[in-house]
């Protein structure tokens, strides 16, 4: 028994203008295959240097055909951290990912402490009484 909402969203090949150097084609291909964008760029430049002019035509065609990635929503303040296990994979190095996650939790901890201070203070009780009037 299979339901339509059980399926994973299908990956799309889109241009990534946020990480673009020229048009975002190489960055989009890198996102699609979950590899580093610099690796795709090196492959494209190497193919052009060694006389595969057809790659330039394919790049321009992809530039014209592929849609851009949608702009991130303003409500999305949290982005998932992808940790890479191989050099060519997209994502952050494990130490950098740990540092980012640790920083995010420290910020959340300080916000939680500020809320606890307010809720346990006399100002909270006074505000609550004023709202009940």
From TrEMBL:
Keywords: Cell membrane, Membrane, Transmembrane, Transmembrane helix. It is found in: Cell membrane. It comes from the Bacteria. It comes from Pseudidiomarina homiensis. The keyword Membrane applies. The keyword Cell membrane applies. This is Envelope stress response membrane protein PspC. Its main location: membrane. One of its GO terms (cellular component) is plasma membrane. The chain crosses the membrane at residues 38-66. It is a single-pass membrane protein. Residues 11-68 form the Phage shock protein PspC N-terminal domain.
